[in-house]
Amino acid sequence: MSLGSFRATHRSPGSSARCCSNKTTSGNSTGGTCSSKEWRPSAIINQPGCQRSLPADADLAEPRLVHHSAGHDREYRLALADFSRAIAIDATDASGYEGRAQAEILQGHPEAALADYASAIRIDPKSPYGHASRGNLYFERGSYAFAARDLARANQITIFAKRIFTSANGISDT
């Protein structure tokens, strides 16, 4: 299951959860293991470390934000701390800022969330996620012009990506 750029890994009891992204800081594939320098926000699960065997009763290795926002314990500050730690480890990974922005929203800090979305967009301006998320937040706050700009940009990026994908794979758009 994929949640944005975060991974929730469904697994059988006793198996290991993959918690690293496929890409290291050097651009190489990790193959499911990672050192602390290669740790990404996708490693934010309710288990410490990188490659761990989960308890037999765990059905899903979830990022803390998903775990906490799903109503399990509503400890958003833990998610916020995890994303802040991920950003400290790799400040060039936009998904850390996007995740922290979500946690900030859930904590009732929309200004901090807007700042994190802005950081994510600066790092990865071609990702529709940051634009769409910030646009939705602007809309909720009544800043309709800013919302329209961000949502239109997210839509442009998505349409362009679809055209590239269909063209590269010989798929007809009609």
TrEMBL record:
Chain segments carrying region Disordered: 1-38
Keywords in alphabetical order: Repeat, TPR repeat
Keyword RNA-binding tagged: no
SUPFAM superfamilies xref list: TPR-like (SSF48452)
Keyword Repeat: yes
Biased segments, Low complexity type: 19-36
Name of the protein described by the UniProt record: Uncharacterized protein
Species of provenance: mine drainage metagenome
Lineage summary: unclassified sequences, metagenomes, ecological metagenomes
